[in-house]
C-alpha cells in the first residue's frame, strides 16, 4: 500500500504546475536577477582596486608629480592617475571615469562627486602629502642637521606596520548571502507541498481527501507515503536549485560544495514538514492554508536576509535565539558556515537544529491529524 | 455602468494584497527619508573599528583615542567567530590588534609588525586603515628622529595629521536649488517596482476575470454595446491606475514635507508616463488570459526582473554594460535614466529627459499595438470558430 500511494503521490506532484512554477521556474528567474544585480557589485564596490583619479596641475609641483609616479610604478598601485586639463577632468568625473580630481597648486584640493570611502581615501592621500611636507619643514626649522634622518624615517617605510591575520579561505563576498537565502526560500516553499498532503487527507477540504478517508488504507501509512513522496520531490528541486546556482550562475560556495547539497536537502525536508504541520493544525480552507504558510515562509526569509543581507546580523544582535529557530536562517547559516569557518562545529550544530525542528514538525503534524472523523462532508 | 461597477467589485477583492506592497513601500521610504541628510557637504566616511589592545600603554591608548576621532570604535568580544561574522556582514570594517611591545618598538624607531589585523579580504577599508596606521607610525618616527620625546612626538604627529584638505563637490546644488532632493530621487527610483506589482496584480486580474469564458459569453449576448463595454473597462482600469499613482505622489509630497516645485515636476510627469506604460502592459498580458498562478509568476518576474535589470533596486553604475544594453529594451530603463538626470546623478539635460519620455511613450504605443494584434488573432471569428469546434469534438 505504501509503495502504491507513494507512486501516485509522485505522479501527482509531477503534474502539479504550481510546483514547477514556484519551486523551479521562479527560483531560476530570481537567481538570474540576483546574479545580474549582485554578481559584480562586490568586485566593483568593496574589493580593493586602484582608484582612478584625474590630476589638474595648476602650478608646477614637481614633488607631487614624483610621488604620483612612484605610486603608479609600485606593484599594487593605490591610484591610477591621469594628468589632464580642468575641463577634461570635470567631464571624466561626471561620467564616472574617475573618482575625484586633485588640483595640485600651492596647496592640494580635491573635487569629488559622491561621498564614500574611495573619496575619503583620496582625501586622506592628499592630506598625507601635506602632512609629510609639513613634517619635513618642521624638521628643517627645528633641527636641520637631522632633516635627512627625518626624510628617511618618512620614506624608507616600505614594510607595512600591520600584519594580516587571515581568518578564512572562503568567499568573503557578502552578496552571496542572497543566493544562500534564495536556496533557503526554495526549501521553505516546500511548505506548499506539505500543505498539499494535508488537503489530500482531510475530507472536508477536497474530494480526494474524502475518498482517501473512506479508503481502507491506514491513515498513518497513507500520510507517511505522501510525506515520503513530497520529500523525494523536494529533494529533486533542491538538487536542481543548488546545481543551478553553483554551476550555471557560478556562485562560489567555498571549497565544500559537496556538503552544500545535504544541507539544502535537509532544509527542503524541513520546509515540507513545516507545511505539513501548519496544514494539519489549522482548520481552514485550502487557500487560507497556502496563504498562511507562504507568508510565514516569506517572513522567515525576510528575517534571514532575502531582502536585506544584514538583517540576520541585526537579529543576531537583538534576539540571537531567533536565528537558532528560524528555519530560513538555519538553512542559509549552514551554507555560510561551510563557506567561512574552517571547522565543522557550527555547521553540524545548525544541521542538528534543522533535524530537531523537522522531527518536531512531523511529530506534531501526525498528532494533530490523528483521529479526525467526519460525521458528514 | 454595470461593467464599471462589476470591475470595482473585483478590484475590492484584490486590494488587500496590493495594499501590502504600498504599505511596505511607504514604511521603508519613511525609514530611509529620516536617515538621510539633505545637505551636500562632503563628509569623510567613518570606519567601524574594533581595537584589541594587547600592549596597554599610554602610547597604545593614545592611538586608540586618535583612531576614535575620525572613526567609530566598536566594542566586540575577542572571539574569532564573532569577529568573522562582524567583518563579513560589514558591521566591522577593521579588527585591529595592537601587539604587545608596541610602545617600546615605536620608541626604538621600529615600525614593522606593530599591529595585526583579522583579515577577511582585501577591500577598500582594510587598505585605508592600513595606510592610516603606516602614516601614523612613520610620522611619530619622524618626530622621534628630530629628537623629541615619545609624548611630544605623538602630540606633534597627531597635530600634523589633523590637517584637512579642502573637498568640493562637483555639483554643489544637488537637490538644493533644483528642488529635487536625494530623498525624492530615491522615492521615485523605487516607485516603478510598486507600480508594476500593484497595477499588474490588480488590473490584470480584473481583466482576466472579466474575460473568463462564461462571463464573456454572457456579456456578449447582453444588450450592452461592445464599444461601451470596452470603454467602461478602459475607464475603470484608468481610474484605478490614476488612483494608485495619485496616492504615491501624495505620499511623496508628505514624506518630503513640501509641495513639488521646479525640477520635481519632471519626476512627477515621468512617473505618470510610467504608470500608463504599466497599465498598457497589464492589458497586454491580460489579453493572453493567463491562469492565476501563471499571472502571479509573470507579475513577480516582470517586477523583480525590471527592478534588477534597470537599476531600480541597485544603482545603474554598478550594473555591467552587458546588462544595461539588455535593459534598454525595458521601459524602466528609460524611466530610471530620466530620474537619474533629474536627480543630477547624471548631468541634467532637458532634451535627453524628453528623449527618455519619448522612449517610454514608444513603449506604450508598442504595447497598445501588440494588444490589438493579439486580441485580433485570439478573438477573431476564425479562432473562436476553431475553439467551438474543438469543444464540440471533445
Structure commentary:
The complex is a heterodimer of chains A (377) and B (394). Chain A is of the alpha/beta class. Chain A folds into two domains: 2-42 and 175-370, no CATH class; 49-160, D-Maltodextrin-Binding Protein, domain 2. Chain A is built from 17 helices and five strands. Chain A has helices at residues 2-14, 17-38, 41-46, 62-72, 86-94, 117-142, 147-155, 177-189, 191-201, 207-214, 219-248, 257-281, 286-304, 311-318, 320-323, 327-340, 345-369; strands spanning 51-57, 79-83, 100-104, 108-112, 162-166. A four-stranded mixed β-sheet of chain A has the order 2-1-3-4, with helices on both faces. In chain A, strand 3 (100-104) and strand 4 form a beta hairpin. The model of chain A has no long low-confidence stretch (mean pLDDT 87). Chain B has 394 residues and is mostly helical. Chain B has 15 helices and five strands. In chain B, strands 2-1-3-4 form a four-stranded mixed β-sheet. In chain B, strand 1, helix 2 and strand 2 (72-73) form a beta-alpha-beta unit. The radius of gyration of chain B is 30 Å and the shape is elongated. The two termini of chain B are 37 Å apart. The mean pLDDT of chain B is 85. Classes of the chains: A alpha/beta (377), B mainly alpha (394). The interface between A and B is large, with 82 and 83 residues. Strand 4 (108-112) of chain A pairs parallel with strand 5 of chain B.
Amino acid at each position: 500500500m505504501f509503495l502504491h500511494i507513494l507512486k501516485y503521490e509522485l505522479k501527482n506532484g509531477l503534474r502539479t504546475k504550481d510546483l514547477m512554477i514556484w519551486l523551479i521556474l521562479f527560483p531560476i528567474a530570481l537567481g538570474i536577477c540576483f546574479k545580474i544585480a549582485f554578481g559584480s557589485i562586490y568586485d566593483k564596490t568593496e574589493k580593493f582596486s586602484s582608484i582612478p583619479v584625474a590630476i589638474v596641475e595648476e602650478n608646477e609641483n614637481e614633488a607631487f608629480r614624483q610621488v604620483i609616479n612612484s605610486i603608479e610604478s609600485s606593484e599594487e598601485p593605490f591610484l591610477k592617475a591621469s594628468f589632464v586639463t580642468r575641463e577634461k577632468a570635470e567631464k571624466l568625473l561626471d561620467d564616472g571615469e574617475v573618482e575625484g580630481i586633485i588640483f595640485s597648486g600651492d596647496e592640494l584640493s580635491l573635487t569629488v562627486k559622491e561621498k564614500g570611502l574611495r573619496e575619503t581615501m583620496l582625501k586622506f592621500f592628499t592630506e598625507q602629502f601635506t602632512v609629510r611636507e609639513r613634517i619635513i619643514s618642521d624638521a628643517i626649522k627645528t633641527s636641520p642637521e637631522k632633516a635627512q634622518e627625518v626624510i628617511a624615517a618618512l620614506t624608507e617605510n616600505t614594510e607595512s606596520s600591520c600584519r594580516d591575520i587571515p581568518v578564512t579561505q572562503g568567499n568573503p563576498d557578502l552578496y552571496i548571502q542572497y543566493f544562500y537565502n534564495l536556496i533557503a526560500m526554495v526549501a521553505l516553499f516546500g511548505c506548499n507541498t506539505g500543505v498539499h498532503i494535508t488537503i489530500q487527507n482531510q475530507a472536508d477540504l477536497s474530494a480526494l481527501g474524502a475518498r482517501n478517508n473512506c479508503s481502507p488504507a491506514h491513515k498513518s501509512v497513507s500520510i507517511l507515503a505522501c510525506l515520503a513522496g513530497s520529500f523525494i520531490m523536494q529533494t529533486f528541486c533542491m538538487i536542481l536549485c543548488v546545481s543551478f546556482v553553483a554551476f550555471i550562475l557560478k556562485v562560489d560556495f567555498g571549497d565544500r560544495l559537496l556538503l552544500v547539497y545535504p544541507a539544502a536537502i535537509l532544509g527542503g525536508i524541513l520546509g515540507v514538514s513545516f507545511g505539513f504541520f501548519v496544514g494539519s493544525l489549522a482548520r481552514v480552507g485550502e487557500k487560507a492554508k497556502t496563504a498562511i504558510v507562504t507568508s510565514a515562509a516569506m517572513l522567515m526569509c525576510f528575517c534571514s536576509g532575502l531582502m536585506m543581507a544584514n538583517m540576520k546580523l541585526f537579529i543576531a544582535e537583538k534576539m540571537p535565539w531567533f536565528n537558532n529557530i528560524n528555519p530560513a536562517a538555519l538553512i542559509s547559516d549552514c551554507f555560510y558556515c561551510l563557506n567561512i569557518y574552517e571547522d565543522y562545529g557550527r555547521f553540524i550544530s545548525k544541521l542538528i537544529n534543522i533535524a530537531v525542528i523537522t522531527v518536531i514538525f512531523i511529530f506534531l503534524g501526525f498528532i494533530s491529524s490523528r483521529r479526525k472523523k467526519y460525521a458528514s462532508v | 455602468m454595470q461593467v464599471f461597477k462589476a470591475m470595482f467589485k473585483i478590484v475590492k477583492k484584490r486590494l488587500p494584497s496590493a495594499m501590502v506592497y504600498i504599505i511596505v513601500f511607504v514604511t521603508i521610504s519613511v525609514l530611509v527619508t529620516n536617515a538621510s541628510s539633505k545637505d551636500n557637504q562632503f563628509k569623510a566616511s567613518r570606519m567601524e573599528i574594533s581595537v584589541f589592545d594587547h600592549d596597554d600603554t599610554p602610547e597604545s591608548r593614545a592611538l586608540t583615542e586618535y583612531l576614535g576621532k575620525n572613526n567609530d570604535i566598536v566594542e566586540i568580544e575577542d572571539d574569532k567567530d564573532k569577529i568573522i561574522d562582524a567583518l563579513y556582514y560589514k558591521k566591522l570594517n577593521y579588527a585591529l590588534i595592537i601587539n604587545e611591545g608596541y610602545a617600546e618598538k615605536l620608541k626604538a624607531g621600529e615600525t614593522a609588525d606593530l599591529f595585526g589585523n583579522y583579515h577577511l579580504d582585501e577591500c577598500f577599508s582594510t587598505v585605508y586603515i592600513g595606510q592610516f596606521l603606516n602614516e601614523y607610525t612613520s610620522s611619530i618616527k619622524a618626530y622621534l628622529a628630530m629628537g623629541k620625546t615619545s609624548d611630544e612626538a605623538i602630540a606633534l604627529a597627531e597635530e600634523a595629521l589633523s590637517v584637512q584638505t579642502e573637498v568640493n563637490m562637483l555639483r554643489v546644488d544637488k537637490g538644493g536649488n533644483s528642488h529635487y532632493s536625494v530623498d525624492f530621487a530615491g522615492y521615485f527610483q523605487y516607485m516603478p517596482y510598486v507600480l508594476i506589482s500593484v497595477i499588474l496584480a490588480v488590473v490584470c486580474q480584473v481583466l482576466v476575470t472579466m474575460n473568463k469564458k462564461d462571463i464573456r459569453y454572457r456579456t456578449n449576448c447582453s444588450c450592452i454595446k461592445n464599444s461601451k463595454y470596452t470603454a467602461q473597462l478602459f475607464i475603470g482600469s484608468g481610474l484605478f491606475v490614476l488612483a494608485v499613482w495619485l496616492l504615491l505622489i501624495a505620499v511623496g509630497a508628505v514624506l518630503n514635507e513640501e509641495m513639488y516645485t521646479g525640477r520635481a515636476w519632471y519626476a512627477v510627469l515621468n512617473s505618470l508616463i510610467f504608470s500608463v506604460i504599466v497599465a498598457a502592459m497589464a492589458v497586454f498580458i491580460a489579453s493572453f488570459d493567463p491562469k492565476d498562478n501563471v499571472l502571479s509568476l509573470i507579475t513577480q518576474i516582470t517586477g523583480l526582473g525590471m527592478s534588477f535589470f534597470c537599476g531600480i533596486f541597485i544603482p545603474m553604475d554598478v550594473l555591467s554594460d552587458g546588462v544595461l544594453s539588455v535593459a534598454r529594451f525595458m521601459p524602466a530603463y528609460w524611466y530610471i535614466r530620466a530620474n537619474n538626470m533629474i536627480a543630477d546623478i547624471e548631468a541634467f539635460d532637458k532634451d535627453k529627459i524628453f528623449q527618455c519620455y519619448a522612449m517610454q511613450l514608444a513603449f506604450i504605443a508598442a504595447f497598445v499595438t501588440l494588444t490589438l494584434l493579439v486580441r485580433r488573432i485570439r478573438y477573431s471569428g476564425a479562432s473562436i470558430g476553431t475553439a467551438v469546434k474543438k469543444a464540440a469534438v471533445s
